[in-house]
Amino acid sequence: QVVVVGSCMTDLVSLTTRLPKAGETVLGHKFFIGFGGKGANQCVQSARLGANTSLICKVGKDSFGNDYVENLKKNGISTAFVDQTTDAATGTASIIVNSEVKTLFNPAPALADLDPQFYIYSDIFCCNETEAEILTGIPVGNLEDAEKVGRMLLERGCKLVIVTLGAEGCMMISVEEPIPKHVPAGKVRAVDTTGAGDSFVGALAFYLAYYPKLSMEEMIRKSNCIASVSVQASGTQSSYPYRKDLPQDLF
Ligand code: ADP
Q1: Where is the Carbohydrate kinase PfkB domain (predicted)?
Q2: Residue 123 is a catalytic residue
Q3: Residue 19 within a domain
Q4: Which residues contact 24 (CB under 8 A, 6 or more apart)?
Q5: pTM for the complete prediction?
Q6: Among 5, 40, 204, 213, which residue has the least CB neighbours within 10 Å?
């Protein structure tokens, strides 16, 4: 069982030849509405891999909220804990909990003054380069920087830290294995990396819940593979792969 606490956002996407300057109107050539929000993205990726998934979130009483609930149902996600009694639909962090009370914390959007309890009570603390910099003040441009971030977050009480590094994959470090490990991503032709981090976190939640005997390194390697599939198509949830379309040795 994968339970995600996090946001649902409706993406209103306009394609234009260039960005407008302040106050300027530019013609768009395409418009579409998509489903996004970090919590929902992670849930969708987990569900598409076959996880029994629930989302805890708030959506508004408007048509976007109604459509979102439908979208979650369409993806086989339980909406029993989707609160549609308020207009608030924001989340500043997402926490994924599985049946072994394991907590995977993704500090997004990151806050420099994050409550220290998040470091202590997360089993796995997973951030990207930008979030890592906001949290630690260390700009992450390479593996060494990510290792410094990892060590600093361990000092703050984290048990296991994963820093995602885009095309470079991930860096992991833990109290049990304090020598940092680089888990590279496969070389692919990236088309659109939006939502890659949520695909990664959703996949990792799936492996934690359904393949708990795998080593953390193996879970990260497999999650890298899934996220690297998502960057080869455009869009966020629309680029997330289904289990049936993935190499079966990932399962
Ligand atoms: P975010 O989307 O939060 O910025 P990242 O850019 O670090 O997160 O990407 C998350 C994961 O997605 C990476 O750890 C990797 O597995 C995969 N990924 C992202 N970009 C690429 C890429 N260009 N090639 C292959 N894998 C990628």
Answers
A1: 1-112, 119-241
A2: no
A3: no
A4: none
A5: 0.76
A6: 213
